Automatic annotation (TrEMBL):
<dbReference type="GO" id="GO:0005737">
    <property type="term" value="C:cytoplasm"/>
</dbReference>
<keyword id="KW-0963">Cytoplasm</keyword>
<dbReference type="GO" id="GO:0016209">
    <property type="term" value="F:antioxidant activity"/>
</dbReference>
<keyword id="KW-0676">Redox-active center</keyword>
<comment type="similarity">
    <text>Belongs to the peroxiredoxin-like PRXL2 family. PRXL2A subfamily.</text>
</comment>
<dbReference type="InterPro" id="IPR032801">
    <property type="entry name" value="PXL2A/B/C"/>
</dbReference>
<protein>
    <recommendedName>
        <fullName>Peroxiredoxin-like 2A</fullName>
    </recommendedName>
</protein>
<dbReference type="Pfam" id="PF13911">
    <property type="entry name" value="AhpC-TSA_2"/>
</dbReference>
Amino acid sequence: MKQKKISELKDQLNVAGVQLVGVVNETHGVNEFKPFLKGDIYYDIDRKFYGPKERWMPVWLGFLRASTYMNAYRTRDTKGNFEGEGRLLGAVYLINKDKMVYSHLEKDWGDAADINDILNAVKKL
């Protein structure tokens, strides 16, 4: 079963008044990422959004994890260039005004947020 991508929720999020945005830490590859996200992308030059403690995955550790290979297989049809800094782990946040409603912190490369969890959090708004 193919997992839904967060960008496929854009219409549902818009109806709920939720804006889908991306925050990136580098400009390399952003143009290729724009069609995938289908939302605004902001470049955080000072990396303030990534928090006081950035979460990095050492390359050697990433390649030792079975989940890395399972996620690569799961996303094999997603085009990517594998260039740029890939060790900084990402996240998905649902923020309402000044309150964190939902968060998913990537534990492994390609560890995607559960779409149903996101939709359930949106329904609670």
